[in-house]
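Justification of computing resources. Each target in the renewal requires a structure prediction run like the one illustrated here; the chain below, 642 residues long, is used simply to show the kind of job we budget for.
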Amino acid sequence: MRVYRSGVIAGAIVVIAALVGAIPAAAATTTSWAGWQPLAGAPGAYTSAVQIAAKPAVTATVTSDSRGGQVGVITGASTWLSEGTPVGAKYGSSLNQPYLNLRPKADNATSPSTTTYSFAAPTPASGWTFVLGDIDADAVRIHAVAADGHVLDATELGFRGGFNYCAPGVAGKPSCTGDAADVPTWDAATLTLTGNAAAADTSGAAGWFEPSTPIVSLSFVFTRRAGLPVYQTWFASLARDVTGTVTDTAEGPLDGVELTLTDANGAVVGTTTTAAGGTYSFPGVVATDGYTVRVAPPAGKISEGPNAQTVDLTDADGVADFTVRDIVPVTVSGRVTDTDGTPIAGLTVTIDGRTTTTDADGQYLFDKVPVGTHSATITRPDGYTIVTAPPPFTVADGSETPITGVDFRLAENPTLSGTVRAGGSGVAGVTVTASGPGGTPLSTVTDANGDYSFPRLPLGEYTVAVEVPDGYAASGAVSREESVIEGDVDDVDFALVRLGAIDGTVRTDGGAAVSGVVISVSGPAGTQQLTTDADGAYGLGTLPPGSYTITVTPPAGSTVVGAATRTVVITDAGEVVVDQDFTVAAAVVTPTSTPSVPSTGGNRLPATGLGPETFVWAGIGAAVLILGGVLVVLSRRRSKGD
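Resulting structure tokens:
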């Protein structure tokens, strides 16, 4: 299950990699394996951060209630996904690229760990992957939430298959030994990746995924089936280039023209200017769809045709060429802002059937507007109300005076927000739903700090509800009624209680595991009985706060070394109380002796002068006589019956 190598071998691999160089993936312009921040915090409350791609930045904060021991960000010098694996063939080798090692919350089947990746912005719809490795004596359930709040199904998660990165014949594999047939199975109904049927500790079993829907939250619920499991997580991305030229209809290729690239979320990926020859490029952009390139023509010029073009990098590099020309009067321009004066970019403005989009400063411009009276309109974005629209304007006959100030002002609808906490700390990855006048409930998930928000809601009455996640219980109401009337609605908070766990092992005084031992756990919800497994382990999860008494019942013929009962306390923090171990030993049998008979005057019975042995033999003789009489009677009855 865990692939560990000596420092000598790891060092040799590093040297070889430096001499040979990384083998690039043939299916993309560039590939990149994720970078991680070191794992911080303590067992049960770890945090980290990961960057999957740079342009646009695909980043997430990480929270995990994994137990400690053999966890952390690993260098990738001794364990990696080679170019001979299916994922490596597309994304390149992960040699010397870090990955994350984590464990269950406790080493029992009822205490899975939950590790949640809260993305700063919705992920791309393609162009990236995650890989779960060392899935053998364990199982991982995947829970991903889309930007619109729905939970991804199996198709959207994009399971690409299982493989074994240690199997013989895998090109470039690490020096581990695995079996090509030892791969985890994927259950599309439960969204669970499960290791081999025997739950045996092996090496190299892995599965990879390429989600096809942008997500804001990704959780791995990792459960122990046997042993002391660890699992690995990798992320990688593909990148391609956006290129093009800007040409003036009269002057030819135009240098110094500014261009902006935005992603599907409307975030600016980068800006650049054309070089000599009118060329530009945005290199190394995540290979997905939804990009927009927008040109900002120099003063006195306007785009001939759309000033923005969409680009799809899913399967190939993207090209967006623009043509500009001199402005021809009469020009009409304006600006679109919100009530605070903040510009609103990318909105469509229409005059006489011609359209353009606002730039980063909210500005727009038309030329060649003919003589006459005209009106400008905009496509109102969701979550906004048009507060001020410009009146119609007139282009006089023979006039070449620019018409300016054809402005729009929009009001952003209120935002409802709050925090979900447990034990005073925010809980990431919790689904919150707001049901209101729109009819269709809106859903979102909490970020790494437990915060959530529903921006730009239509006015009305809302029911806000929280879905209690695995490993927690509600502490108070799970829904609230709120009115969204004018301003923002803040502090719509919910409280949860983290559930704890207990685990331990029963061994002999020689250190051997003892299976089948009965363990009783008494607590706030009553008494539960467990039996130790083949490893001598026992455990219980999802325990609410309270005091718990653990009692071991030693197997027949054995006794407990030390106390057979102990008491532990789980607080609102949901502690995992580990190493509640017991030791049993074979019971010592003390030989029993013949009881002495009281006597008077030496070894004689009182008032008889006879020793006790006399009565013993007398008793035996009487018993023989009685038995003989019984046999005679039975013999006579039998003879009568014959």
